[in-house]
């Protein structure tokens, strides 16, 4: 653990080099939830912020913003903002503030985000004013992935479990929230497509396109919390036999270990890439075998334009069952979709 890893790293030459911050949480009582990601892409000259609040049923509040940036990312160590989204580090690896005050799209049915914008009906969202004031307090030390543990490394990645408390206001409604979540920090090349680029994020070569009859995600990322004492996360990619396999991390009672032999299977709404259920099997570094069932409460699709099509990163808010424990988190599926 190196506290410098909370701040910006030397920028690499890869055009897709990125430094990103991510937070999520779920209130287990109200099922109000959120994820927010801010990415700095110095070789492209901009940073962007994506922010989604799950408001029950399929309703979400969605916002996205950008800013121009310089190539020296150390200029932004105390200025982590993009659009109206702002992150503030009060204490490295311990406490963060997640703040938003600005406009958002109040979307009653997030499935509309799977449609091309020109095909969406009039009134598919209501413009609204969103305010969010949340505090993330770490429950654990950060867990580093194999991609690197030192600030001097070309790429790195860690995740950390914590509690999140605060308030969310949309229009005339305010929700007081208290829940559990995971934060993520990455630096290095990041490729959103299903290509063969060596990247800091999971990707596999020559991935099949998603279709109405056979959804074929090329990345499954997941994080979940079972109260304050158990959390896990990781990612799977599609292997040559067509299965989604990968690795991650597992934390129980303050002790962190690797999560090995992860395999995820998924069920979908017929004719769509909207996932409804997942099943995860894995083995911890201590030899404990896990079998986790996930029921997707709703999905917020996010679309990233790519040459010849798009990558849909479908963020599934999920309820997970592991033995007699119930937890909550995010089951994220990446689909490559052709324009044809």
**DSSP strand (E) fraction?**
over 45%
Average the pLDDT over all residues and give the rounded result: 91
Rg over CA atoms, rounded to whole Å, is: 19 Å
Assign the CATH class of the largest domain.
Mainly Beta
Q: What is the H level of CATH, i.e. the homologous superfamily of the largest domain?
A: AttH-like domain
The total of helices stands at 0
Following the backbone from N to C, one meets helices and strands in this order, namely EEEEEEEEEEEEEEEEEEE
pLDDT under 50 segments (min length 5)? Answer: 148-152, 195-208
> Largest sheet at a glance?
8 strands, antiparallel, barrel
Features:
eight-stranded antiparallel β-barrel, 19 strands, AttH-like fold, mainly beta
In a few lines, what is going on in this structure?
By secondary structure, the chain is mainly β. It contains no helices and 19 strands.
